[in-house]
């Protein structure tokens, strides 16, 4: 609605932009999950992602606040609308990209970071209960109260409330950073999978050996569940 009313973008184009953003919010958490597990840990990723998301919300607030960042509204009685300039579109896309990347980074790390603060399974169950309750409550508020404010008051006020909420949550989270249990990165299975795929692709012409000693990771001979020699299933990965 913001794209149609404020940027004079056609409904089809606005729907495409919305679908791209929603698609990125679905796919990016799979990619960003590798970063905390393999390199930095959950707490630094949450801090940086929350800050990136805050920058995006602030930029959206500025877009809604200054007339130079949006096209001129359609004159009364006119059927022609001013199209947004390239600069205005770039600023809009930058804001959407920041919000998308920041949201994806926090979404994938918050739950695991919270679980790392407790040792007892019961406490972790309570944490996840409140976590999902809070996430759903936030979604309801954003889909009702914020949308109502943007439709009946102004886009500036609606985005300002979102920016204020993001600012408060960011400050609260960063303020307690020294009290958190910082788990060291343990490695990600996605990273190992990518390494295997790259190695198998680069050695696609190699001949697969059937000798046990030719493999760098050999299972024990006394194991009854697995065979020492790689099986024929997905044999191209044995390279």
UniProtKB/TrEMBL annotation:
Membrane protein topology class: Multi-pass membrane protein
Name of the featured protein: Protein NRT1/ PTR FAMILY 2.1
Molecular function in Gene Ontology: transmembrane transporter activity
A GO CC annotation given for this chain: membrane
Alphabetical keyword list: Membrane, Transmembrane, Transmembrane helix, Transport
Transmembrane segments: 12-35, 41-66, 87-108, 128-148, 155-176, 188-208
InterPro entries to which the protein is assigned, alphabetical: MFS_trans_sf (IPR036259), POT_fam (IPR000109), PTR2_symporter_CS (IPR018456)
Originating organism: Noccaea caerulescens
Compartments (UniProt record): Membrane
GO terms for biological process, alphabetical: oligopeptide transport
Top-rank lineage group of the source organism: Eukaryota
Family: Belongs to the major facilitator superfamily. Proton-dependent oligopeptide transporter (POT/PTR) (TC 2.A.17) family.
């Amino acid at each position: 609605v913001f794209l149609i009313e404020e940027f004079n973008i056609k409904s089809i184009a606005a729907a495409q932009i919305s679908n791209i953003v929603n698609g990125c919010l679905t796919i990016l958490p799979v990619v960003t999950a590798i970063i905390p597990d393999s390199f930095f840990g959950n707490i630094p990723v949450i801090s940086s992602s929350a800050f990136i998301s805050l920058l995006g919300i602030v930029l959206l607030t500025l877009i809604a606040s200054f007339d130079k960042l949006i096209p001129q509204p359609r004159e009364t009685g006119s059927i022609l609308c001013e199209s947004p300039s390239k600069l205005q579109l770039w600023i809009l896309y930058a804001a959407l990209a920041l919000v998308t990347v920041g949201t994806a980074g926090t979404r994938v790390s918050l739950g695991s970071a919270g679980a790392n603060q407790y040792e007892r399974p019961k406490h972790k169950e309570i944490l996840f209960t409140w976590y999902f309750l809070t996430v759903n409550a936030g979604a309801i508020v954003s889909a009702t109260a914020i949308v109502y404010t943007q439709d009946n008051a102004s886009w500036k006020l609606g985005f300002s409330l979102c920016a204020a909420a993001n600012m408060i949550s960011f400050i609260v989270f960063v303020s307690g950073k020294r009290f958190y249990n910082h788990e060291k990165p343990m490695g990600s299975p996605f990273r190992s999978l990518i390494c295997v795929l790259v190695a198998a692709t680069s050695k696609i012409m190699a001949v697969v050996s059937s000798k046990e000693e030719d493999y760098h990771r050999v299972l024990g001979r006394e194991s009854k569940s697995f065979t020492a020699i790689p099986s024929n299933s997905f044999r191209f990965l044995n390279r």
